[in-house]
Design goal:
The protein has about 100 residues and is of the alpha+beta class. The chain has one domain.
């Protein structure tokens, strides 16, 4: 099995709690989510998420491997988003993320 060498893990999603919404005044409209998870899958300790960054209007795929602690995220175009979601390691390799072989 191969794993990417990670320089920086993906940023955590910002959560919204009921307290934040209740503390808002009548003139405060709830802000749109900064990052929205469009899809997620988990298999053999590997978590893959398809994310939409609403403010920047861009898509990314985030991968985290619980076994190795490795994680990476890369931007994708809309036309390749589902393919990148289903084959994130191939897309990461194409983008130049280095891999190491675990033994």
């Amino acid at each position: 099995m191969t794993s990417p060498i990670v320089a920086q893990p993906p940023r955590p999603l910002e959560s919204a709690t009921a307290a934040v919404l209740l503390a808002a005044g009548p003139d405060d409209a709830p802000a749109a989510p900064i990052v929205r998870e469009l899809d997620r899958r988990h298999s053999d300790g590997i978590d893959v998420r398809l994310l939409w960054h609403s403010v920047a209007d861009r898509l990314s795929v985030a991968v985290a491997d619980a076994k190795t602690g490795d994680a990476f995220e890369f931007e994708v175009e809309g036309r390749e988003a589902l393919h990148a979601f289903h084959h994130p390691y191939a897309h990461a390799a194409f983008r130049g993320i280095e891999y190491r072989v675990l033994g």
